[in-house]
């Protein structure tokens, strides 16, 4: 699939974001749910997943900001 450079960049950014979201879902589900047999999660599992996702996205955002600052300083 050939995309113009701008479309290619947007495609790659979207793909990276979707890959990150998928990985967060997998990690948090694995960490927070001990046995899933279908249906709704209990409230402790739901809260655990919400907190886990918030931590992982917060770390990702902080890393992105740090990388951007280091790039602007020429250190990355």
Key terms for this structure?
76 residues; mainly alpha; 2 helices
Profile the largest sheet: none
The gyration radius over C-alpha positions equals: 17 Å
Topology pattern, helix = H, strand = E: HH
Helix content: over 70%
Task: Provide a short characterization of the protein structure.
The protein has 76 residues and is mainly alpha-helical. The protein has two helices and no strands.
Model description:
Helices cover 78% and strands 0% of the residues. The longest helix has 31 residues. Helix 1 runs antiparallel to helix 2. It is an all-alpha fold and 76 residues long.
Topology:
Blueprint: H1 5-32, H2 43-73
